[in-house]
Amino acid sequence: MTHTHHHERPAAAPVLKVTGLKKAYGAIQAVGGVSFEVRPGEIFGVIGPNGSGKTTLFNSMLGQITPDAGTIELNGEDVTRLGPMELNHRGVGRTFQTLQVFGKMTVRDNLLVAAQEHQGNLFTRMFAPSDSGLGDKADALIDQFHIRHVADKKAGELSYGQQKLVDIAMAFMSEPDLVLLDEPCAGVNPSLVGGISTLLQELNQSRRGSFVVIEHNMDFVMNLCHRIMVMVEGQVMAIGTPQEIRNNKQVLDAYLGN
Predict the structure, then answer these.
(1) Total domains present in the chain
(2) Strand ordering across the sheet containing 77-78
(3) Residue 168 and residue 195 share a domain
(4) Contact at 8 Å (CB) between 232 and 49?
(5) Range of 232's domain?
(6) 159 with 234, same domain?
(7) pLDDT tens digit string along 208-239?
(8) Looking at the whole model, is its pTM more than 0.90?
(9) For the segment 112-155, what is each residue's pLDDT rounded down to a tens digit?
(10) Which residues pair with 143 in a beta bridge?
């Protein structure tokens, strides 16, 4: 699919723009006025210690939480109050820390279901017309993710790392503008982490999407992301390139305990 977005809006327009986002739970301010933007084609990392508000921020961007204040804009459109399905229809893909694969279905069918869910035809999700092009899309991703050899296996029979790859592939079936990746390395064998990083870089190049990645694995974030936002106690401590974040004394003190 050729994206002609650059004709429709100025090249500088952010894919995602979050402004003054706040969310409190009782007296606890989980997110206390967070603002940032993600540029077209950018891989944007979000790091911070537990309790820094990353998850609340993410869930707001996914439409699972409605913030108390602030706005979330997608391609210049206010989507602050939209739920997960509407966001998905507007081009937001997502992967979760907990796997979303259907264990009793084949890998290929998992991908088809993900695309059909995006199209909204839940009743016909297992009977997509053969000319819908979804099979071709699934095959292209299966090759890109190097999972051809397990494509016809039930997803539940795969290793955790392979299931994780299927889970990430599902997010790309709808050809999203923006993909939110929630701890893609969580629970993954360290030997596979580099492979996931390479794969995400390839997808970013070939599909021109923007990614937001929350991850505890610092090396992974530093190697993958164009820019990184550091959150501490619901606030943005810093946003910058990996190099800038590495050299930020405040971040080192707060986050890395140096």
Answers:
(1) 2
(2) 28-38, 16-25, 69-74, 77-78
(3) no
(4) yes
(5) 1-91+177-258
(6) no
(7) 889 999 998 889 999 999 999 999 999 999 99
(8) no
(9) 888 876 565 544 545 544 546 788 899 999 999 999 999 999 99
(10) none
